[in-house]
Structure formats: C-alpha cells, structure tokens
Amino acid sequence: MALVVHPNLVAGPHGPCVTINRSGKLRPIYLQQSVLDQACGPHCVYMAMMILKLVSRSQLLIMSRGDDEYHPLFNSWLMAQSYWLHGTPTRGLLRLFAGLEDKITLTAIDETSTKVNQYLASNYQAHDVYILNIFNWRANLDHWLLVVGQEIEADGSTSWLTIDPYTPPLGNQLFSGKLKTAKGKISSYHMNNGKVWQAKASALLRIQLEHD
C-alpha cells in the first residue's frame, strides 16, 4: 500500500497541522462546522488556504471577530457568512478566493460525476488541494470535503484521503475519512467514526499555488 499526503501536512496532537516558522512550531488546520449550519464549503476553503499557507489560523480568528478589515481576505470572510445556513455552490467557493488571484490557480469541474472522477484521477498532484462535493440524495447527503491525499492498494485500487468539516480527525492523524472507488469512480465515503455512506462525486475545485 502506498500513501501520499499533501507535503505541508504534519500529524499533531489535534490532527493535521502545518508548520508556521523555521522553529517547526505546529498549528492545526482543522475547522469544524456545527450540527446546525451548512458551512462545510467555506470551512473547506479556509482549511485549504491554511494548508497552502495563504492565511494563518490566527488571521482567520481575527477576521472572525470582525477585525483586520484591511486584510485581503476580509471581504471573502464577509461573503462566507451568507453561505453559512444555506450551503455553498461551486461558484460560491470560487468567490471566497477573491483577493488571492495573483497567488493561485483555480480549476472547477462542475458537470457530471464521471467528469469529476476522470479529472481527479488523471490530474491529481500531491502538492495541490482539492475541495470535492459528494452526494447521496436518498440519504440527504450533499457535502463538501477536502481531499488531501491518496491511498493506493497493491491491486491498484485507490482511496482519496479526506478532511471533513463535520467529523474531526483523531489526534496524530492526517485525515478523517476515505472516499473509496470502484471501477475508477468514487462509490462510498468511510468516516473515522465507523459510518459508511454510499456516495457519488458531483463537483470539484482544484487549488494550485502559482509558483507550482
């Protein structure tokens, strides 16, 4: 089995972390939504930004208090509030990256499940971050996840390693769930609490740093 995870991520006592300075000090990147909100999309966006070191956790906390209005992402933070209770479409996720146009390249795949699966399988790069929507209408599942790695079994089958805003990762782990595939398509979501959902992919957003 081969395991590939974003190179910026380090396992810490509170789950996935990034180092913030030369001393190697760790800062957790996990943001958890509540059982009452629909903030999975914005939470994935800001966790992706922290993984790519585009914003720090302390900066996000300052903006959440309504301060630092001159920060390039302050307007993004204000926009995110409008999605908190009603969910976020793909175009909404794109809007939340306003202010970072000179630092990143965004690629959105918002067509069919087949195209999302094909794009992810063909274009996956470990140093990029992916925000993926999964759904199961019968189970009332419509959810954004962060894809931060890939697990490849000896038989060639692939699982995508995820961080879920709804389910926190355990301590000293880099991810909180897996999306397993069948015949090259995402077919089920396995959470770290033991729950398994049948699920399909419906949309994908790839975030690349410009210098890559």
TrEMBL record:
Domain of life: Bacteria
Record-given protein name: Peptidase C39-like domain-containing protein
Organism: Chitinibacter fontanus
Taxonomic path: Bacteria, Pseudomonadati, Pseudomonadota, Betaproteobacteria, Neisseriales
